[in-house]
Design a protein that fits this description.
Layout: H1 9-16, E1 23-29, H2 30-36, E2 46-51, E3 65-70, H3 84-103, H4 136-140, H5 142-147, H6 151-164, E4 176-177, H7 189-197, H8 212-219, E5 222-229, H9 230-233, E6 241-247, H10 248-252, E7 260-264
Antiparallel strand pairs: 1-2, 2-3, 4-5, 5-6, 6-7
Length: 266
């Protein structure tokens, strides 16, 4: 089977042949988040985000991520090293890339891999945000949807939303907790609905296509838990965004094990 094209197939097969732990992407201090703004999140403990990052472009959904609500006491926390098997895969990945550079007569600089990124501490800050012009909330507003029929208006609006989605201090797209997802393609909540409600990511494979109003209503039942900008998380290795999404009912009942992960890139 040619998975993801001839370039990617070997490492995908190699990855699937092993029972690998997921890559640790982020931790949110819920107490800090609650001190910034009251929200639908718990106000104690921390959320830990894990993802099958090497395969998530080809396999999205519940089975490709884990979100854990850790409520252990801060003094009980301890730092752990990357699992040995992930470190081995990371080292092999870098060696393979270095060999590829040599084969093509290129000079390899500092190489990274998809199994871990540099440790970074970030602050939770409150920012204003607007939905993308294709977001479900935007499409549910008849006046707004009508205005977006004008291509110049839509372009101007999306440019403004794009500016809001940037960290104006250094021009790097921000990671995001809650709020509207910033899509690389369509609203990522569409994929969550497709996977959970219809079992198929592509709408043309659905047994029956719902009407537009029903589809938008289903999409607005989902919350963005966390949006990760991969180029900022793992510099030099990847692009695109990873979205952790959870349905409203599961968030209210704290069933974080039902989180869905979606990957998009331009």
């Amino acid at each position: 089977m040619n998975l993801g094209g001839s370039t990617h197939a070997p490492h995908i097969r190699k990855h699937l042949a092993q029972a690998l732990p997921y890559v640790f992407l982020a931790q949110i201090d819920l107490g800090e988040a609650a001190s910034v703004s009251a929200s639908v999140l718990p106000d104690d403990g921390r959320l830990l985000f894990f993802c099958d990052l090497p395969l998530v472009p080809w396999r999205q959904g519940i089975e490709s991520c884990r979100v854990i609500w850790d409520r252990s006491a801060p003094q009980a926390l301890r730092r752990v090293e990357m699992p040995e098997i992930l470190q081995r895969f990371a080292d092999e990945s870098v060696d393979e890339m270095r060999a590829l550079y040599r084969e093509r007569g290129l000079v390899a600089g500092e190489l990274s891999h998809c199994y871990a990124g540099p440790e970074r501490s970030m602050r939770v800050v409150l920012r204003y945000a607007l939905p993308n012009s294709y977001a479900a909330e935007a499409m549910q507003d008849e006046v707004f949807a009508a205005a977006m029929q004008d291509e110049d208006m839509q372009a101007a609006y999306d440019d403004f939303v794009s500016e809001l989605s940037l960290d104006l201090a250094d021009g790097v797209a921000m990671h995001r907790v809650l709020g509207y997802p910033v899509p690389e393609q369509d609203d990522p909540r569409f994929v969550a609905v497709a996977l959970v409600d219809y079992g198929r990511p592509r709408f043309w494979d659905w047994p029956q296509m719902p009407d537009e109003a029903t589809l938008h209503a289903k999409m607005t039942e989902w919350h963005l838990l966390l949006q990760i900008e991969l180029s900022d998380c793992i510099p030099g290795w990847s692009e695109g965004k990873v979205y952790f999404l959870i349905r409203d009912e599961d968030l209210r009942t704290r069933r974080f094990e039902r989180t869905v992960v979606v990957y998009q890139q331009t």
